[in-house]
Amino acid sequence: MSDNDHHPDGIAKRDSLTPLNACVHAALEHGVGLAQAFFEGRQLDPWLFAHIVRYGVLEHLPDAIVNVDDYGVTRNAMCGVEIHADGCSIRIWKKPRAEDEYLQPPGESEVRQSFYWQQIPLPFAVEQQLPQPDNLAYVWEALPSGTMNLFLVKPSGIEGIWKPGLFEWAVPVPHPAELVTVGTDFLEGDEDEDLDIDLPNAGSGGGEPNGGA
Question: 161 by DSSP, 3-state: which?
Fold first, then answer.
């Protein structure tokens, strides 16, 4: 686990997006399930797998998003996904293979390069001096075990168009099931305090309670 896992700004932003995090988890599970079903009995193509996941996310996300105020979902080319929520522009991308990398090389895409540099792609936003939104990314990776890791990443630029994107922080986004804690109030009472149960008088009923055995 790296220091980025505990970056205070990353943790704060992740927590502010808690309702959306759960929705994205659900949509990605749907997309991964579609891709796994498609490749059952077929030779795996990792690029097509990721494309089918994006398609599944777009298919499921509008119904999955609940308890999120003022959001929008944009469908970009090649089933690209962009979410606008909490003053942020958020993409959904597949994680590179390397453990310490989170953003794919931008290549010659000027749009992705600008996104990594935290630039606003809309000229009118600059002209009207609107607050600059954070460009963030939900980055996912499917594991051989059938489970999935999800991270929230803030890009911070590039070193070269064929090198992984730089990032200010990358924090894990736990599955909603991992956030559920079981209450332990029932364990905190007096250990010597018994329940009041009235058992029948052994001398009056003949035989043992519940019929014996």
Answer: coil
Residue type for 113, please?
Answer: Q
Query: Is residue 104 a contact partner of residue 165, using CB atoms and an 8 Å limit?
Result: yes
Spatial distance between the Cα atoms of 94 and 176, rounded to a whole number of angstroms? 20
pLDDT tens digits along 174-202:
998 887 654 544 444 444 444 444 545 54
pTM: 0.78
**Per-residue b or e along 102-138, where b marks 16 or more CB atoms closer than 10 Å to that residue's CB:** bbbbbeeeeebbebbebeeeeeeeeeeeeeebbbbbb
| b/e 65-87 (16+ beta carbons within 10 angstroms → b) | beebeeeebeeeeebebbbebbe
Enumerate residue ranges in the chain where pLDDT < 70. 1-4, 66, 120-131, 180-213
State which amino acid sits at residue 143. L
Question: What is the residue-wise DSSP string for 57-84?
Answer: HHHHHHHH--S--S-EEEEEGGGEEEEE
